[in-house]
């Protein structure tokens, strides 16, 4: 349904997006995951025809969207990272304004406004000025605007930034329902691992403008199939203990946490014994050990050498 081929965007001497290739099948929910500055929003801007690429193409149902932007725009709903509403207007006035931009008029427009207000559960607040809404309510109206014209593809660029957990879960549940029940195709960008795990059939991991891995949740985790994660809690961080960990050939990645260390290790029955030996020689106490299956966070750490939110 949608395919990006060799997308590149260069700002002066900086390559913000570097040879990105991705595709989305009809009815899929696809995640674009990466830290701030990875190039997600720039990629989204190109796919939504807001930004022409330095190189590469995007095709929608086989047609180049840069040759004919009108081939995709009527079928595209975009929820931008920043709130795109007029604060002084009410939700109803905002929806009416944006609906008319999409060519909706009369009873058709009224019916669609009623439908999306019910969907985001803000019918009773529709005449209130947006400036009096909470952050979560603004995000929900932002989503309502994107859904007003019944798009075939919904692009959401970090739509839960800066809102409370209740509103965040509400939006995630709503998006999942739209995808599963209404078969709405979704491209969802985030730097929250748990969001894309919950919503997406497939995931692209992006860093420094490049796609560094892609696949289903389980396929990505299988990258570390011969490894496991060990969380070691200690009473105090210690340089000698850290050095011992770094010199152990079975430990592939070390992340210092608030109460200890997170290790990605090659599976080894001897390593646990070694950890207690290192602690004894460093005069520190191991207060807890947890062995876990690799997570997407671990995969990202393995691929990029840093935590997702770094």
TrEMBL record:
Output the superkingdom of the source species.
Bacteria
GO MF term (any one): ATP binding
SUPFAM superfamilies on file: P-loop containing nucleoside triphosphate hydrolases
NCBIfam families for the chain: drrA
Residue limits of the ABC transporter domain? Answer: 2-233
Q: Where in the cell is it found?
A: Cell membrane
Q: Family per UniProt?
A: Belongs to the ABC transporter superfamily. Drug exporter-1 (DrugE1) (TC 3.A.1.105) family.
Q: Name one Pfam family in it.
A: DrrA1-3_C
Membrane disposition: Peripheral membrane protein
Q: Which organism is it from?
A: Marinilactibacillus psychrotolerans
Kindly provide the name given to this protein in its UniProt entry: ABC transporter ATP-binding protein
Annotated Gene Ontology cellular component terms: plasma membrane
> Which GO biological process categories is it annotated with?
daunorubicin transport; doxorubicin transport
Which UniProt keywords are listed? ATP-binding, Nucleotide-binding, Transport
InterPro entries, sorted = AAA+_ATPase (IPR003593), ABC_transporter-like_ATP-bd (IPR003439), ABC_transporter-like_CS (IPR017871), DrrA (IPR005894), DrrA1/2-like_C (IPR025302), P-loop_NTPase (IPR027417)
């Amino acid at each position: 349904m949608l395919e990006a081929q060799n997308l590149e965007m260069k700002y002066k001497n900086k390559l913000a997006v570097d040879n990105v290739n991705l595709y989305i099948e009809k009815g899929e929910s696809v995640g674009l995951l990466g830290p701030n500055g990875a190039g997600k929003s720039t990629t989204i801007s190109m796919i939504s025809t807001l930004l022409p690429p330095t190189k590469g193409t995007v095709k929608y149902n086989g047609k180049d969207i840069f040759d004919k932007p009108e081939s995709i725009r009527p079928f595209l709903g975009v929820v931008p990272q920043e709130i795109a509403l007029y604060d002084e207007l009410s939700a109803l006035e905002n929806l009416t304004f944006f609906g008319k931009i999409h060519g909706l008029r009369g009873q058709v427009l009224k019916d669609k406004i009623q439908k999306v207000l019910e969907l985001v559960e803000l019918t009773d607040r529709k005449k209130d000025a947006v400036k009096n809404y909470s952050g979560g309510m603004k995000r929900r109206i932002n989503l309502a605007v994107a859904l007003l014209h019944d798009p075939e593809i919904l692009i959401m660029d970090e739509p839960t930034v800066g809102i409370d957990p209740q509103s965040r879960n509400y939006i995630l549940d709503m998006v999942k329902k739209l995808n599963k029940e209404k078969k709405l195709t979704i491209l969802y960008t985030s730097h929250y691992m748990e969001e894309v795990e919950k919503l997406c059939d497939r995931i692209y991991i992006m860093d420094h403008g490049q796609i560094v891995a892609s696949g289903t949740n389980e396929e990505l985790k299988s990258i570390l199939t011969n490894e496991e994660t060990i969380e070691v809690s200690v009473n105090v961080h210690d340089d000698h203990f850290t050095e011992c960990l770094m010199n152990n050939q079975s430990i592939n990645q070390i992340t210092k946490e608030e109460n200890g260390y997170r290790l990605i290790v090659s599976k080894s029955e001897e390593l646990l014994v070694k950890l207690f030996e290192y602690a004894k020689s460093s005069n520190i106490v191991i207060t807890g050990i947890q062995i876990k299956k690799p997570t997407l966070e671990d995969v990202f750490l393995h691929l990029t050498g840093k935590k997702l939110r770094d």
